[in-house]
Design goal:
Strand content: under 5%
Structural class: mainly alpha
Number of strands: 0
Number of helices: 17
Shape: globular
Radius of gyration: 20 Å
Helix content: over 70%
Length: about 400
């Protein structure tokens, strides 16, 4: 039986995410083990991997609205494959440097921004509104499963064949994704009689998000959470290898706790929000995340490994509840003609905090050490529940589902 459009889209995403999860372990270990990178180097690589969210997220929403999705996504997959494959090639010729890893991370990040906005914009076109929460939970759960298995497989592969050759798995996954996405039906781009300037369209999406009583605060909460996530992405491998002296296999297993937490959170999100309500659920999950983040850098020896794994699991589980709930709400509450720009605006602000967090963490970890820096960033997660408690959501059980109107100049 032929797979429906959603399932082909899902298989492509799953393949790509699994390869990226393997590469997510192999790339920092390449920097640490092969090139003896410093904490600041790790911060630079992490920042480069998310810098594009600051630079092109806003125009990405307009670009996605104007161009054919399928062709763009296939091209972006191939660009990512070539960028990642350049690392083993340079290593083979003994020419690999930290600078190249930074450039590769930057190229992949630009492709990721456009690809992710396109993917989220495409989903409501192939999934009925009543199934969006379930499909978003499935996607988060699948991503969690890849995050659970990918780092473990990546750590094992690095242990067996080395960090650089393992990156070929990531490159191949992008090629497989491109082949699958090429089979999806092409979206017909509707060309208006008069196309507003890009700046005008960006401004409409920006104003809609900032003025929305739910989407706006949810974006600022995600920004605070992602600022901490940026620090974690930069320092986790450094902390585990340099301060806890973990082997590559153990690094993969411990980082995989993130995937397990995400898998549990994704599996329970719908049941959890049905029980407590979507608004209350966001506040509860935000408080749980604070506990998890503060646990991560505690203890010494075996206790440190346990604290890292449990804290990582709890923080990831709470984060996915926040992510699935607010992402579904954006898809339901945003006018269809604004959705891609709403997604792009949220990504620009919230994901743009990741490179800033990673870069600052790399700077602080030099004089303070990775453990102390992780504790500082863990304390910053208290901003998440404070943001939600400062809004009318504190008096709500569920988020209101009536979509706010689009700006007058956008309506037709």
């Amino acid at each position: 039986m032929e797979l429906t459009a959603f399932w082909r889209w899902w298989v492509a995403s799953t393949t790509s995410h699994l390869g990226s999860a393997v590469g997510g372990v192999a790339l920092p270990l390449t920097a640490l083990v092969v090139l003896d990178a410093s904490a600041f180097d790790m911060g630079l690589i992490t920042a480069a991997g998310y810098l594009a969210y600051l630079l092109i997220s806003l125009p990405a929403g307009v670009i996605v609205q104007r161009v054919p999705l399928r062709g763009m996504q296939v091209a972006l997959d191939l660009v990512r494959a070539l960028a990642v494959a350049s690392v083993p090639l340079a290593w083979w010729y003994d020419a690999l440097t930290v600078a190249q890893l930074v450039v590769v991370a930057l190229v992949v990040s630009f492709a990721n921004v456009l690809f992710d906005v396109a993917n989220q914009t495409f989903l409501p076109e192939i999934v009925p509104a009543a199934q969006l929460q379930a499909r978003n939970s499935l996607n988060s759960g699948t991503h969690a499963a890849t995050q659970l298995g990918g780092p473990s497989l990546g750590g094992l592969a690095v242990q067996l064949v080395g960090a650089v050759p393992t990156l070929l798995v990531d490159a191949v996954s992008y090629v497989v994704s491109a082949v699958l996405l090429r089979t999806l039906p092409a979206r017909q781009v509707r060309q208006p009689d008069q196309r507003p300037p890009m700046v005008t369209m960006i401004r409409e999406g920006w104003h809609y998000v900032l003025r929305h009583p739910i989407i706006g605060p949810a974006m600022w909460d995600a920004t605070a959470t992602n600022f901490v996530n940026g620090a974690m992405l930069a320092l986790f491998p450094f902390y585990l290898v340099r301060e806890l002296h973990a082997s590559p296999l153990l690094v993969g297993l411990l980082i995989a706790a993130d995937g397990l937490g995400t898998l549990i959170g994704a599996a329970l999100t719908t049941r959890f929000t049905d029980r407590f309500g979507t608004a209350r659920g966001l506040i509860i999950a935000a408080f749980v995340g604070v506990v998890g983040a503060l646990m991560i850098p505690l203890g010494t020896g075996t206790a440190a490994y346990v604290a890292f794994a449990v804290g990582n699991l709890v923080f990831a589980g709470s984060t996915v509840v926040l992510s699935v709930t607010t992402r579904t709400y954006r898809m339901l509450a945003s006018p269809p003609e604004l959705l891609s720009r709403v997604i792009a605006t949220v990504k620009f602000v919230s994901w743009g905090a990741i490179p800033l967090g990673g870069l600052l963490a790399g700077v602080l970890a030099g004089p303070l050490g990775a453990r102390t820096t992780l504790l500082i960033f863990g304390a910053l997660t208290v901003l998440s529940p404070i943001i939600y408690l400062s809004t009318p959501m504190r008096r709500m059980r569920d988020l209101p589902l009536d979509p706010a109107p689009a700006p007058a100049e956008t309506r037709v």
